[in-house]
Design a protein that fits this description.
The chain has about 325 residues and is α/β, with parallel strands linked by helices. Helix content is about 40%, strand content about 15%. The protein has a single domain (about 5-330), classed as NAD(P)-binding Rossmann-like Domain (Rossmann fold, 3-Layer(aba) Sandwich), CATH 3.40.50. It is built from eleven helices and 13 strands. Strand 5 (about 120-125), helix 4 (about 145-165) and strand 6 form a beta-alpha-beta unit. Helix 1 (about 15-25) packs across helix 6 (about 220-235) and helix 3 runs parallel beside helix 4. The protein starts with 5 loop residues before the first strand and ends with a helix. Bound molecules: nicotinamide-adenine-dinucleotide.
Length: about 325
């Protein structure tokens, strides 16, 4: 993406979407930003509101029509609007199907109006379920909940539309991203944001399990950068893992955040470790994660007050929330 391009970003007011818009705008591209603030905040993009290269569109992706004028003459579509919450989806799967699957089809249909250089889907490492580690893109998928299943179905829809309507596609299977603007507004999905909200409210950090579980944590601007390099260099029709290539235990990351810890019971078969093999995107796109965990946590702590305003998922609320987990899997 060396020359200025016209891109449309769904989910742009959210955590990763807003970091991607920042990057596109800083590189001189034109951006159409769609979001309905289900979980995001237009405040995240306040810095671009008066820029003539930026257009804000407050819209539910389910209401996008195939002839939507915002989808004309585009070079790239970055489709990040979506919802993920494994536990909530066990009780209320319908909303995950409508937003993630039906919503993706709406975006794909409208995107057919443009001669796209690439359609990029924000996929999820959750599609792997309890995979062996480090996990490769060729490893078997095994979604454990309806939320994860809908991310896989939306990814498949993306490749299917790309094949039959002849536009290039990629899916980025994002592992645990973290960093500023990571807010758990509607569901307590992102463990990092739960801890930051607790820390900002001087509450103990809740760990599910004993803290020995490990996750592949990847800083938000590294993910934004991965979208950009994949748009340009990613091979058509390919899935790419987006992670740090390292598994960090929950104890290690909470030690860095600093604060008292409390522990609640975990489900016995919860995947012990997520850990991305990132050699494919390294090789195809020459992408490397740039921000080490210690810096990423520091950058996040620098804007701690930003988390104070969000809903607090304290120990009591989280224990109640996790009851569904045990009801379904007991
Ligand atoms: N953050 C991660 O670690 C992670 C990991 C795997 C996959 N992903 C995927 O990346 C994408 C972005 O995730 P995020 O962490 O930035 O989440 P986020 O909730 O901050 O961003 C998603 C955005 O989509 C918007 N949205 C939801 N439903 C919508 C609808 N019907 N119409 C319009 N907008 C809608 C929300 O308001 C929000 O701003 C999601 O698709 C998510 O599944 C994220």
């Amino acid at each position: 993406m060396n020359n200025p391009t016209k891109s449309l970003v769904t989910g742009s007011a959210g955590f990763l979407g807003s970091h991607l818009v920042d990057l596109l705008m800083k590189e001189g591209h034109e951006v159409i930003a769609i979001d309905n603030e289900t979980n995001g905040r237009w405040d995240n993009l306040q810095q671009w509101m008066n820029n003539p290269r930026f257009k804000k569109v407050h819209q539910d992706i389910l209401e996008i029509q195939p002839d939507d004028e915002n989808f004309r003459h585009l070079d790239y579509v970055f489709h990040l609007a979506g919802i993920e919450s494994p536990i909530t989806s066990l009780k209320s799967p319908e909303i995950f199907y409508s937003t993630n699957v039906h919503g993706t089809v709406k975006v794909l249909q409208a995107a057919r109006q443009s001669q796209l250089k690439k359609f990029l889907f924000a996929g999820s490492s959750a599609v792997y379920g309890d995979a062996s580690t480090p996990t490769l893109e060729t490893d078997a998928v095994g979604p454990l909940t309806p939320s994860c299943l809908t991310k896989l179905q939306a990814e498949e829809a993306t490749f299917h539309w790309g094949n039959i309507f002849e536009f290039p596609t990629n899916s980025l299977r994002i592992f645990n991203s973290y960093g500023p603007r990571d807010h758990a507004k509607i569901y307590p999905n992102s463990v990092f944001s739960i801890w930051m909200q607790q820390k900002a409210n001087a509450q103990p950090l809740t760990i599910v399990g004993d803290g020995s579980h490990a996750r592949d944590f990847i800083y938000c601007t590294d993910v934004a950068n991965a979208f950009l390099v994949t748009a340009k260099e990613g091979k058509d029709g390919e899935v790419y893992n987006i992670g740090s290539g390292r598994a960090t235990t929950l104890n290690e990351i909470t030690d860095r955040i600093k604060g008292k810890k409390t522990f609640i019971k975990n489900k016995e078969d919860e995947p012990n470790k997520t850990w991305a093999d990132i050699s494919k995107i390294q090789f195809d796109c020459n992408w490397q994660p740039r921000i080490p965990l210690e810096s990423g946590v520091e950058f996040s702590l620098d804007v701690l007050e930003d988390w104070a305003s969000g809903p607090l998922w304290d120990q009591k609320k989280l224990s109640h929330y996790f009851e569904t987990w045990f009801e379904v899997y007991s």
